[in-house]
Please model this.
Amino acid sequence: MTTTANVVLHADSLGKSYGAVRALDDVSLTIAEGEIVALAGENGSGKSTLAKIFAGAIEPDVGSFSISGERCAFRGPHDALVAGIALVAQEPTVVPSMTVAENVLLHRFRRPLSAVRSRRMKRDAAVHLARVGLDVDPGLPFAALAHGERELAEVAKALSTEPRLLILDEATTRLPDAEHLFRVIEGLCDERGMSAIIITHRLREIRRVAHRALVLRDGRLVGELARDDLSDRRISSMMVGRELVDLYAKPDVVVGAPLLRVHAIVTDRCSVPISFDLAEGEILGIAGLVGSGRSELLETIAGTRRAHSGTLMVAGTALPNHATRSAMAHGVCLVPEDRWAQGLVRFDSIVGNHALSRHRALRPTDRRSERRRARADVVRFGIKTPSIDAPVSTLSGGNAQKVVLARAIDQRPKVLLLDEPTRGVDIGAKAEIYAIIGEMVSRGVGVVVASSDLLELIGLCDRILVLHEGEVAGELARSDASEESLALLSAGGARV
Model:
């Protein structure tokens, strides 16, 4: 039982609005010393807003919160760090031009032009990197890290401040296996009394690590689940306010004629030639650990990367190398892994981002048609926004992802390439996205899904190609695939 003596964080009637949108409404909660609490909820439910308030990134309109009984009035993230609160946000908060070590120990930079002891900084950073299981040279430029490595470096940065309260906002979405990270957090909570708030859409992670879960819906705290009550059904139904049945809802589609042919392709990451076919109405999964070459393979097919050798054909027509426009003209469309860096113009509007693929130089723009199409997709995809004119930067991560996906499907592709399509997306929105994918394959579209969510691949795909260090380690039919077999092949083990 939580007592006044061991309360680390107490929030009382917090509220926050953005225009007409009520992001948080009368939220009160308590976090005890050494406790790991999951915040669950759909995209736009207020989870990230709450995390940013605690981390000093934004101020509440009403209400207050305290740390160990002392009321907080943070003027910025630095004040929160001083109070012992560290946030790993959904999107990176690093300086790409600086080294890994400099980013991990960024809190040490107090004044401009202050002296920096590079050797000591690398040595100190290496300790924190090793703690989260990241084996890289601390002297590397941060931009040289793969996406999953960047996420671990962000966690190392947060832990380097020795926080009393660690907040992880979708920090595991780029990690194929968060088990090591969870053991580190549990160790710090048990041994040092650190507390943690975990925000994740992966229900199995909530079941794995949380002592209890607090559920938000439409900005309000609608319930709490004790550890013994943390079942997928209880969590999801409380999040969305309804029962979710048959999450993947994969239609029984008869696979048609060959559509995409990838022959002996060599990419930036895959030095051994890769070949496979994709048929009409088929969903092909791509599994593999961080750095295995999943994203590079999809980006090469889409023309955003140059293939070192090999050929690509769509419906019998060869695609020119490194030609995104040509790939799109032949019906190949990519939803990239990093929505902010690769998929969106952050400060442009929803309607502007939705129309990006249709913009042509020296061609007049039909703004009325663009607004009509954007408005229709906002409704179709359930994008929570006060207006299609709102900047995408004001959207939650999951709603921003829906904008990218809506734009891709609006192009009526023959081949749809999805790189982590549900990263940072809540369980209700996942069901909607899976239903849309099912609708696409019912129309004869061929879909390739690269994902670190093994259950997603098993539930969604007809067959799964597994990559290990740039090579095809194996291929499994849906009926033969399991989390164990996929994990083993991804790690370079033999097929079981």
Residues 427-442 form the longest helix (16 residues). Residues 258-490 form a domain with the Rossmann fold fold (CATH 3.40.50.300). The chain has a mean pLDDT of 88.
